[in-house]
Design a protein that fits this description.
The complex is a heterodimer of chains A (about 300) and B (about 130).
Chain A: E1 2-11, E2 14-24, E3 29-33, H1 40-47, E4 55-60, E5 63-64, H2 69-72, E6 75-78, H3 90-100, H4 106-111, H5 113-116, H6 129-143, E7 147-151, H7 159-176, E8 179-184, H8 187-190, E9 196-201, E10 204-210, H9 211-216, E11 218-224, E12 238-245, E13 248-254, H10 257-265, E14 271-275, H11 279-289
Parallel strand pairs in A: 3-8, 3-9, 6-7, 7-8
Antiparallel strand pairs in A: 1-2, 1-4, 4-5, 9-10, 11-13, 11-14, 12-13
Chain B: H1 12-25, H2 38-45, H3 49-61, E1 65-68, E2 72-75, H4 80-103, H5 108-121
Antiparallel strand pairs in B: 1-2
């Protein structure tokens, strides 16, 4: 569905995106994570056909996206700062979207009024930041795009609205097999939504993974033995991180849960616990493993 | 319908698989009953439809459900292999717990009386 091959983009002295490749399947929700200035928005704007890559190719449904009007009719980009015409009301903006996007669904637009409870005659620029974002989402969901690109979409929305927007998103994915590409600097915000995640750091893609695999194959374990740690104990494990606290050994290991369990049981530990590891911790350790300074990457 | 813990270290699809298995084993859903559609579950739980699809694939693979293209997913009559597998895991877990119990000084009589108690709770333990 979305294919990005070795894409580069620079602005004057700054190389914003360096040799990024990725692949998103139809009907998938892809989360692009990264700290501020990592190059997320630049990549998104190239994906939306707004910026032209300096090098490399971007294909959506097998066609290059840049200046491709036919393709852009089925694709929608919601920027981090939604744009509305000066003094436009929601109804006037709806008129514009109706003219531009053939997928516009008038029935849906009016149905969605219940979800948002905003007056269509109200001027968008007089609304609060959060309400403006809601207005943007309202228009987005009425356009019914095949590909939806969202840049920090939940910024400024309250918890209830966030949940509602996520719900509308998954419904569209389930019903119409819409493909969604979301950027965020906040892992927590998208971990329940995405099936794949990629991390961008200093313009480079440093990790790409299916989110379930990420959770399934990293474990934090705590073990203690009666007579100290057997010398061969750690050699059979893929240890990402280890720390000794008195007689207790704490380590983060990778691998299949059952295999790790069975392996450790063979050494007859007196204490053996598998402690919960949040997705955030996993990222932090994984990043540490590939040599990135932990604190600079993500909160 | 289900409560999922999104922050849990356990992948969401695994949680779903476990919850649905529980429903099937406890016969909340009988054989050949239709499971909720992917669309419906995605909407109700606000989770990624791909995750639900993955859970259904896994359940199908394990023999708990079957699918009819265009119709949906249905509860399978439980094959013998599944029950045998379950028995085996139960045995393993029991053995492990019993070893621990002996190790911390529990007596055989105490364990046997627990067995009686468990039998009563489970209602005689008649085989499925």
């Amino acid at each position: 569905m979305i294919e990005i091959h070795h894409v580069h983009k620079g602005f004057e002295q700054v190389e914003a995106v360096k040799d990024v490749s990725l692949h998103v399947q139809k009907g998938s929700i892809y989360g692009l994570l990264g700290s501020n200035g990592a190059g997320k928005t630049t990549l998104l704007k190239m994906l939306a056909g707004i910026y032209k890559p300096d090098d490399g190719d971007i294909f959506i449904e097998g066609e290059p996206i840049f200046e491709n009007v036919k393709l852009k009719k089925k694709l929608l980009f919601l920027p981090d700062n939604p744009y509305f015409f000066p003094h436009a009301t929601i109804q006037q903006m709806a008129q514009f979207y109706r003219d531009v996007y053939p997928g516009w669904n008038e029935e849906r637009f009016w149905q969605l009024q219940e979800w948002f409870s905003i007056d269509v005659q109200q001027k968008i620029q007089r609304m609060s930041k959060g309400m403006q974002r809601q207005a943007a989402f309202w228009l987005v969901f009425s356009v019914m795009p095949d590909v939806l690109i969202l840049d920090e979409p939940f910024d400024g929305l309250d918890a209830v609205m966030r949940k509602k927007m996520k719900n509308l998103l998954v419904q569209d994915v389930a019903e119409r097999n819409m493909t969604v590409f979301i950027s965020s600097h906040n892992l927590r915000e998208v971990e329940d939504l995405c099936d794949h995640v990629g991390i961008l750091h200093n313009g480079e893609m440093i990790m790409e993974r299916e989110i379930d695999d990420l959770k399934a194959d990293v474990h934090k374990i705590q073990v203690a033995f009666r007579d100290g740690i057997p010398s061969s104990f750690l050699t059979g494990l893929q240890v990402v991180y280890q720390e000794q606290r008195g007689r207790v050994l704490l380590c983060i290991v990778r691998g299949n849960r059952e295999e790790v369990d069975a392996y450790i049981q063979r050494f007859a530990p007196v204490i053996f616990d598998v402690l919960p590891l949040t997705l955030e911790e996993i990222f932090v350790y994984e990043m540490g493993r590939i040599g990135y300074a932990i604190e600079s990457v993500m909160v | 319908m289900f409560e999922l813990d999104i922050r849990s270290r356990q992948p969401i699809y695994e949680q779903l698989v476990e919850k649905i298995k529980e429903f099937i084993i406890r016969e909340v859903w009988g054989p050949n009953e239709q499971l909720p559609s992917v669309r419906l579950l995605a909407k109700e739980l606000t989770i990624n439809p791909n995750t639900i699809q993955k859970a259904y694939r896994e359940l199908e693979h394990q023999g708990y459900i079957y699918s009819i293209p265009g119709k949906g997913h249905f509860v399978a009559t439980q094959p013998e292999e599944v029950s045998r597998e379950k028995l085996e895991t139960a045995k393993q877990q029991l053995l492990k717990l019993l070893c621990e119990a002996f190790y911390i000084g529990m007596k055989k009589d105490a364990i046997l009386s627990l067995v009686d108690e468990a039998e009563q709770i489970a209602g005689g333990g008649d085989p499925r």
